[in-house]
Amino acid sequence: MSLGQQLAPHLPFLRRYGRALTGSQSHGDKYVRATLEAIVAAPEEFPRDVDPRLGLYRTFQVIWSSTNDDQQADPGEVDDQEAIARARLARMTPLSRQALLLTAMEGFTVEDTAYLIDVPASEVETLVSDALSEIENQTRARVLIIEDEPIIAMDIETIVRDLGHDVTGVAVTRDEAVALAREDRPGLVLADIQLADDSSGIDAVKDILSEFQVPVIFITAFPERLLTGERPEPTFLITKPFQRSTVKAAISQALFFDQSTAPIS
């Protein structure tokens, strides 16, 4: 099997990571594109002593670290989300956010994460804890949950409240979700795809976004329905069954880039 064939299944998830890290599909995709170009230009430098997925993310991390940490973007090229993120990033260590996303969202072990961001394994858990604490201090929101499974909905609601956020309501159908959003405008939406009356969480989110902008996290057993490579894709996507830490990380990152949460000044 060629290297390209080995890496292909992991690209949608690398794009997810890039979007979550930068807060922008276009910006995240630039880093993914640069990663692939680097691999094509010098395939002999691709890490062959580790799993292909690990080698792919390692190549991405090297490019991110070398071009992003100290680079100042042209103000004319910075969108609102990126401006918000840059202000918040100034208050925390970039490695902390990377450690959080790699462990909680991408599912890498502490040891693999240490390899990816080039720090001792003993530092990874501290970095993750620091990231969660800092993001939680900077962001507060009212959350709408769209989920038709009562046990899962209760679990998500507990996670949301444990993070210090309020829940505006729990909807089990498309129509109910839209009605709740209109009644009490949320600052974040957590949405399943398949709802109680066979309606679609995707359609519910589209209806809500047609009226106002709000960050959205999809939580689904069918990620392939959203990771299609077509634009736009959701910045935040969690696969069921999920870990509580994964949901916490996604909520923190989604609100990290949202201007309606607590002031950052």
Automatic annotation (TrEMBL):
Source superkingdom: Bacteria
Pfam families linked to this entry: PhyR_sigma-like, PhyR_sigma2, Response_reg
SMART domains listed in its UniProt record: REC
InterPro entries: Bact_response_regulator, CheY-like_superfamily, PhyR_sigma2, PhyR_sigma4, RNA_pol_sigma_r3/r4-like, Sig_resp-reg_PhyR, Sig_transdc_resp-reg_receiver
Annotated ranges, domain Response regulatory: 142-255
Post-translational modification 4-aspartylphosphate, affected residues: 192
Keywords, comma-separated and alphabetical: Phosphoprotein
Gene Ontology process terms (BP): phosphorelay signal transduction system
Keyword Zinc-finger set for record: no
NCBIfam families in the record: PRK09191.1
PANTHER family reported in the protein's UniProt record: PROTEIN PILH, STRESS RESPONSE REGULATOR PROTEIN 1
Name of the protein described by the UniProt record: Putative transcriptional regulatory protein pdtaR
Record gene name: pdtaR_2
